[in-house]
Structure formats: C-alpha cells, structure tokens
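User:
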Amino acid sequence: MSRPTTGPLRVCLVASSQHPIREPFAGGLESQTHYLARELRRRGHLVSLYAAPGSDPALQARELTLDRFRPSAAASRDVNAPPARWMTEHHAYLSLMLDLAGAGGDEVDVVHNNSLHHLPVAMARTLTVPVVTTLHTPPLPWLESAFHLSPDTPAVAVSETCRRMWAPRVRASVVRNGVDTERWRPGPGGGAAVWSGRMTAEKAPHDAILACRRAGVPLRLVGPVSDPAYYDAMVRPLLGGDVEHLGHLAHDELVEVVGAASVALVTPRWEEPYGLVAAEAMACGTPVAAYDRGAVAEVVTPAAGVVVAADDVDALAAALPRAAALPRDQVRATAVRDCSLQRMVDEYEALYVSLAAAGRPAA
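Assistant: Predicted structure:
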C-alpha cells in the first residue's frame, strides 16, 4: 500500500510521555520535537502530536496519558506488579499503537516516533503506515529488544556517533539535530562564561565551575536541578562569588544569557548523543570549550570552539581563552550552515516522502 506524496503530508509525531513539550524544555528530545512540529506545520504539513500533559497549547498535542490505566485490586497485589508509573506509560503507548494499527492509521502517512518507549518500535509492523524512530540516546535495553524483533523498522540517529553506538543492534541513518537559528540569535558576547543544561552528574556542571575558577573566568550556570543529591554534594558548595546559578530560565532569557557570554562550556560525563547546548551557543555566536565525549566534536568544529580530552579540567581551563578568541561571526556562520533547524527538517521531510512513497504492506 503506497501513500500519495504530493501536497501536504500527514505526520504523526510521538513524543515522551514523561515530560511536556513546552519551554523551558526538560531536554533535547523535547526541544527537538517542539521545533520539528512547529516547522512542519509552517511548511504546510498536517501534524498530529502525541505528548505528555501540559505541552505547549499552540502545538494542540493529544495527551498520551489521557486514559490512565489502573490495575484491578487483585492485579495490584501481584508481587511482581510493576510500578504504577510504568503501567500508565505502557498503557498510553499501547493504546496509541492499537489505534494507529486500526482506523487511526488511515489519518496519517507516516509515524515519527521520538519517544524512548519500546512499544512504537515493537508494534510498528502492525501498522499499514511506515514508522520511523529517532534514536536520541545511547542504547537502551528495551529499545534494543524491540529492534531485534523488528529489524526492518526504519531508524535515524541524531549523530554519526549515536549511529555507531547503536550499530551492533540497529541499522540507522543519520539526521543530525538542529536549532532554530532565528530564535537563537547572535549576542554581543564579552560577559561571564555560561554552562547550560540539567544539573546531573552525567552533565558535570561542577567541572565547568572548577575550570572557570582555575582560569579566573566568572561563570553563570543555567538549568533545572534534576538530581538534587548530586547538586547538593557537588555544585551548591562551589556557588558564590564569581559563580552563580540562575535557575531554569525561559527561552528568551536563556538566549540573552548565552548570547552575552564570552564562551560556553560543555562538560559531558556520558556519551553525549549530539550536544544540543553547544549548537545553541554557537547559533548565538558564542564559542564553545568542551570535553571530547560522544558526538561533541561532530558539533563543535575548530571554527566554533576548542575540544579537549574528556574529564581534563586543566585542559578545559586552558581552552577557555582560546575559544573566547574565536570570531563570533565565524562561530555563528558555522551553526547556521551545520546545525540549523531548516537543514534538519529538510532531511526529515525527504525521509517522510520516501517512506510514504514506499508505503508498507498491510499486515
């Protein structure tokens, strides 16, 4: 069964059920889904978004957890019963996929799964429309299992590094993430360094603080405290004086802070699948000093920043003045060329057209 590819496409976007698709975003998955939905609609496509409650009203998202499932009293007494949150999430995705396998599938041309749940992959072959999944993270066991049983389900990784991480179990192409280079506008620079992201051990904001202290550079931290125990042990004791935590800022406030910074630090202690905060800083013209871990070096090229050995705080401190000396217009131009939302959506649009043209045989 093939679908028409002329005119607007009907695209079903499936997002995470855990975090709303709204600003300020919980992470890269949420921001990319928001940007993608908005830009596809701007281009005239018909987008249905399934996302967590509380998502941006402008996106007109359908709530994944609208029909909450509560096991019976007898089932709840099962000693092996999973947590209630797991059951709610399972029920939400099961309900969605069953609907798309039935009459709901007649309303779309392609399903784009941006969630981390296994059911959209495991049940893809029950649909009469193609399903493509974006791999936003390093490998996850539930997803690996689903792809093992559905090896022909199309997958896209957000970087070449991410593709290689999944390669032993999943065949994926690459569509690198993008940022809205109109909203992430150029700033004057010259101010304190900036670090943005979730306050968690794998993001290591404490390394950014230590590097800036050693380099004598003031630092402004931005982001939600996602791991209070880590924050209280490793970050809070280092705050004060030339280091301040501004909290979780709205988008426009964050753009102002990043654009005013002389340099942005990116300090992953996990295999960063893309490095969205680096691309955002570059779009503001702010050069980046970063650890070489995961896909960071794919994003932060020599024209836009300095990448040093992972976990080397001294090397990161030494990189700060070198990065800050890069021309801001050159940094911005690199982001516009390599990291733009337009480029990302162009590639997804071409993928949707290809999948819709090929269609999928009825099960």
